[in-house]
Amino acid sequence: MKKQFKPLVIIVGIIAGISLWWRYAARRRSLPCPPWLDWMLENRYVETVANSQAIVERLHLQPGMSVLDVGCGPGRVAIPAAKHVGPDGIVVALDMQADMLQRLRKRMTETGVTNIHPLHAGIGEGKVEIGVFDRAVLVTVLGEIPDREAALAEIYQTLKPGGLLSVTEFIPDPHYQSRETVRRLAAAADFREQASFGNWLAFTLNFTKFAKPDDT
Fold first, then answer.
1. Does 132 map to a domain?
2. pLDDT of residue 42
3. Which residue from 142, 150, 200 is spatially nearest to 167, judged by alpha carbons?
4. With 149 labelled, which of 24, 71, 165, 187 sits at a CA distance of 20 to 30 A?
5. The 3-state secondary structure of 55-94, one letter per residue
6. For the chain, what is the mean pLDDT?
7. Is the peptide bond preceding residue 172 cis, with omega within 30 degrees of 0?
8. Containing domain of residue 9, as a range?
9. Residue 100: alpha-carbon gap to chain centroid
10. Which one, of 77, 75, 87, 33, lies nearest residue 55 by Cα?
11. How far is CA 182 from CA 31, 110, 142, 152, 204, in A?
12. Would you say residue 206 has pLDDT above 70?
């Protein structure tokens, strides 16, 4: 048991050290996770506290649905989400780093997944279709976005009426956003909280878009 526990402690220690440096550096400018640090997004610790399958299950996906994965990285959530929506569904995997999308494409080839559309862009740039998505998901991404209010406003517009926004955060991500912060930002964009999962170490908050007379 001790031999199995020691590697996890080492991983947590390394992640914590990098996160402290990263959080300090990110005070001056936006610093999304670079491709050479993608192992921080996929390791034993991350899968323990923020399991990708659990995140996808909380989306309540159905075959044929359309999903927007904001800041998709190498596809930790996009790949299983694509499998859930099936060949009649689609996942638009958005990332501002071309190298991350290249790693996603490689994983798509390895897994045989074909219903993911990689999109090289940042949220808030107006490059995502309006009113077409059933679900939008942000996993440890919200804090990396310079204008979070504008980003959530755009995500609101991309969702269909009744669409779901799912935000996951966990410690010690350097851009960690508290539940209170996520709730405040989502409410400002007219989202309504639907469900809450997790604990102080990692959580998921789901929000619903309610149709308004002027919604697209």
1. yes
2. 64
3. 142
4. 24
5. HHHCCCCCCCCEEEEECCCCCCCHHHHHHHHCCCCEEEEE
6. 85
7. yes
8. 2-209
9. 14
10. 77
11. 19, 35, 8, 10, 10
12. yes
The CATH code of the domain that includes 120 is 3.40.50.150
Length of the chain: 216
Task: Tell me whether residue 186 is in a domain.
Answer: yes
Q: Over the stretch 30-84, which tens digit does the pLDDT of each residue have? A: 556 555 556 556 667 777 777 899 999 999 999 999 999 999 999 999 999 999 9
Please, what's the largest Cα pairwise distance for the chain? 60
> Residue 216 domain-assigned?
no
Q: Which pLDDT score, from 0 to 100, does residue 98 have?
A: 94
Could you tell me which of 51, 42, 43 has the C-alpha nearest to residue 9?
A: 43
Q: Which of 146-150, 154-158, 184-188 bottoms out in mean pLDDT, i.e. has the lowest?
A: 146-150
188 neighbors 152 (Cβ within 8 angstroms): yes
In the numeric block, which tokens belong to residue 23? 């959080």
